[in-house]
Protein 1
Amino acid sequence: GAVVSQHPSWVICKSGTSVKIECRSLDFQATTMFWYRQFPKQSLMLMATSNEGSKATYEQGVEKDKFLINHASLTLSTLTVTSAHPEDSSFYICSARIPDREVTTETQYFGPGTRLLVL
Amino acid sequence: GQNIDQPTEMTATEGAIVQINCTYQTSGFNGLFWYQQHAGEAPTFLSYNVLDGLEEKGRFSSFLSRSKGYSYLLLKELQMKDSASYLCAVLDSNYQLIWGAGTKLIIKP
C-alpha cells in the first residue's frame, strides 16, 4: 500500500515559537493532502485541504495565518504552527489522496502523526 | 448540517463478538469507511461500503443500509489487540470525509 510519512513524530517547544511539520508521500504523487488535528479522546478534525501548487482550503474556525500550509511539490506538504501556544498542543495527522483512484478501497492514506506539546 | 453518531465507548470480553453502530446524516453519500485507531497512532483502514449489505473481511465485517443511514462494524473472536477506537466516516457529495467521534472499544480478558 501507499506510504505517508510525517516528521517529526514528537515535538516539544516553548510558547511563542513556530513549529514546522512535514508530510511526505513516499511512493506516490499526491495532488491533495489533508491536515487533521485530534485532541485527546476526540475524533479527527479536518483543518485544511492542501492542493499542490495552489492555496490551501481551510475549514471554518481554523486560522490560516496561524496554521500555514505549503504544498510545493507532489510529494510534500508542510504545516507550520506559528507562535504556538499551549492550547495548540495536539496530535496532528496528515493524509494523502491518490489522484484519480477509484473510490473502492482506501480514499486516504494517513501519516503516523505528530504529537505537539507547547510549554 | 452533517452528523455522524456512534457510541462513545463499549466494553466486550476477549473471544466474544461486538457490534459497533454508526448512523449518519450527510449531504450526499459516496461511501462509508471504518477505521481503527490505536491510542497515539494514525487511523488504519478497515472497510469501505457503498452498496447495501454485508462485507466480510476475516474477523471484521461491515454492514450498510443506505435507506436507514446506518452502518455497523462487527468484530468476531475478539482479541486484546482489538482494543482501540473505531471511527466511522462518510464520504459526502463533495467527496469529503465526514468523521464520527469514534467508539472506544475496551476488551477485557
Protein 2
Amino acid sequence: EPEVTQTPSHQVTQMGQEVILRCVPISNHLYFYWYRQILGQKVEFLVSFYNNEISEKSEIFDDQFSVERPDGSNFTLKIRSTKLEDSAMYFCASSEGPDGYTFGSGTRLTVV
Amino acid sequence: AQTVTQSQPEMSVQEAETVTLSCTYDTSESNYYLFWYKQPPSRQMILVIRQEAYKQQNATENRFSVNFQKAAKSFSLKISDSQLGDTAMYFCAFSSQGGKLIFGQGTELSVKP
C-alpha cells in the first residue's frame, strides 16, 4: 500500500535555529498538507498545498513557516527561527481529494 | 466555521465488550466527509472509518461502525468486541470540499483485560 514518508522521525534543535521537515507524498496525490500536534492536544491544520502553491493556511502558519515542493516529489516545511512552543509532532498528509487522506508517521520536533 | 467536538476525554471498556465514542460537528455545508482516526502510542494517525455525508447508510469496517445522524450533526463510533490493541487516542475529523481536515479534541480509549 502506498505510504507517505517523513524524515527525520525525531529532530532536536536549538531555539532560534532553522529546521526543515521533509515529506514524500504519495505520487499520484494532488493535495498536500502539514498538521501539528502539541503533546496531549488535538491535531491542528497548518497549511495545504495544491498546484504548486499554498491553497489555505491557518493562523498558526505565520511568517516563520514556509512550504516548498522543490523537485516534484518532496514536500518540505521550513521553520525559520524555532521557538520552544514549536515543539510538537508534525504530520504530513496527502490526498487525491477531500475524501481520503494518508498521513505520514510524523516528525517529533523538540526545541531546546 | 466548521467545528468538531468530542465530549469524552477518556473512556474505558473491558476486553470483548462494546464501546461507543461520541462526536458532534457543526457546518453549514451539505456535502462533506467525516472520519475517525486512531492514534496509538506510536502517534501514527491511522484511518479507522470514513463516512460520506450524502450516503445515508452507516459505514462499517469489520468491528468498527458509525452512527451518522446528519440532522443532529452527530457521528459516533462503535467498537464491537474490543481488543487490547484498540487502546489508543481516537480523533473524529471533518472535511468539506475545501480539503483540510478539522479534528476534534480526541478521546483516549483504554481497553482493560
